[in-house]
Amino acid sequence: MTLGVGTGLAAGMTLAAGASGLAGYFARTVVTPVRERAEDLEILAVTRGPEGDEVILPITAETVVDGTYGLFFHGGRSLARIGPISALEPKGGTVTRPVEKVYGGDLRTAVRGWWTSVVYLNPAHAGFESEEVVITLPGGPSPAWHVKPQPIAAGFDADYEPPLAGRNIWAIGVHGRGSNRTEGIRALNATSALGVDTLLISYRNDGEAPAAADGRYGLGVTEWEDVEAAIEYALAQGAEDIMLFGWSMGGAISLQTADRSRYAEYIRALVLTGPVIDWMDVLAYQARANRIPNIVGKMGQWFISNPGGRRVTGLAAPVDLQAMNWIDRAEQLRDHVLILHSVDDNIVPYGPSRDLARKNPKVSFVSFAQARHVKEWNHDPQRWDSAVIDWVSDLFSRPAPGQSRPGEPGYFA
Fold this sequence. Notes:
Elements: H1 2-31, E1 41-42, E2 45-49, E3 52-58, E4 69-73, E5 78-82, E6 87-89, E7 94-103, E8 112-116, E9 131-137, E10 140-147, E11 169-174, H2 188-194, E12 197-201, H3 224-236, E13 241-247, H4 249-260, E14 267-273, H5 279-289, H6 294-305, H7 310-313, E15 336-342, H8 351-359, E16 363-368, H9 376-379, H10 381-396
Parallel strand pairs: 11-12, 11-13, 13-14, 14-15, 15-16
Antiparallel strand pairs: 1-8, 2-3, 3-7, 4-5, 4-8, 5-7, 6-7, 9-10, 10-12
Helix pairs in contact: 1-6, 2-10, 3-4, 5-6
């Protein structure tokens, strides 16, 4: 009996220690920036097609989705812009796609890379002139691109009149976890069509801006201060209204900015693509996707959100996950929000985005299919652009907060 109890206790302690260790690893992974990406996609061949080079890739859940994407190679130093599918060979397990452009390096010498939503390395590659500016963040100076509206570059005629031209409205692009300001270049067609200035920013721990003192992501509860600095910069340049464009974790950051910033009154709209609406939902989903037991996943959340977990995560302060649960806080959301989210997002489930729109009438939800994570524009750029342009144009045609049309009780009330 004594031996049995002792053995059971020892086994239980071993199991508990293993669960704690796995939970700690899970928690650290969530808050630790990735400095080197795994080249997890084999590049089988580059051949000469009827209209230029084509790349042959293995069939994966990502490579068989039509649209325009990026393929980083040579350790991320080079990028190829890859066009829509030209041939699919299910029996051979390969897909062929045109190589539209290569930025640096020789794709023919590459054997591995990684698939990405990034298709340009700077605004000039997308046809837009930009100015490199410096924004003073709490941690120090950080680079950003300021892009003035250029309807011609966006494909419009010279006589096209953007609906928001001359209104001193600025869009600020907030990229997602593990990405950088290149992610927001895809929005430039829409923002130029609207006639607004665009500021594509860097923030702490993204490899361009100064790192946080603890070198950890705050998942939005710290990074919003960097977005606030960008708003301050835009206001100093003459901006009168601000729109925040956020992708993935950039959505969580944008929501925190609108909630906490002393410049919140200037924020008129949020345009969020594949956003994190509820971190606890995302973490639970990721635990299941990685076959981590539910109790271990919850323990990982505890490590992130409680002072006692700081030794494990390396965070300078715990992250208040509940403060970023906008499903529970739906009634507290003051701003008008457009969410564009694919129903098959494999990183950030779309359910909270849909539910937030159901709970708060200020939130509009546009669903995509097959786009997976933050590739809605890549899969269907015309639909993404049109949804953004139409929604923003309609929003800014309404009276400003505190005003109303004759006979109306105040649209923003």
